[in-house]
Design a protein that fits this description.
Keywords: Signal. The protein has about 60 residues and is an all-alpha fold. Helix content is about 35%, strand content about 0%. The relative contact order is 0.06.
C-alpha cells in the first residue's frame, strides 16, 4: 500500500510540474530603434582598429 502512495504522489508531482511548465509567461516587449539613430551597444566587434596604429598617409607631390 505504501508503494502505491509513493507512486501516486510522484506521478502527481510530475504532472504538476509539466502543467506548470506549459503555463504562459509574459514576454518582454521588443523595442524598435528609432529611424536614423545608431543602436546603442550594437557596434560590430572587430570592425574598428582599436589599439592599432593608423595607416600612414601617402601623398604624391
Amino acid at each position: 500500500m505504501l508503494k502505491f502512495g509513493i507512486v501516486g504522489i510522484a506521478s502527481l508531482a510530475l504532472v504538476g510540474t509539466a502543467v506548470a511548465a506549459d503555463l504562459p509567461r509574459p514576454q518582454p516587449v521588443v523595442q524598435t530603434a528609432p529611424v536614423g539613430k545608431w543602436p546603442v551597444g550594437k557596434t560590430p566587434v572587430g570592425k574598428y582598429p582599436i589599439g592599432k596604429a593608423p595607416a600612414p598617409v601617402v601623398t604624391k607631390g
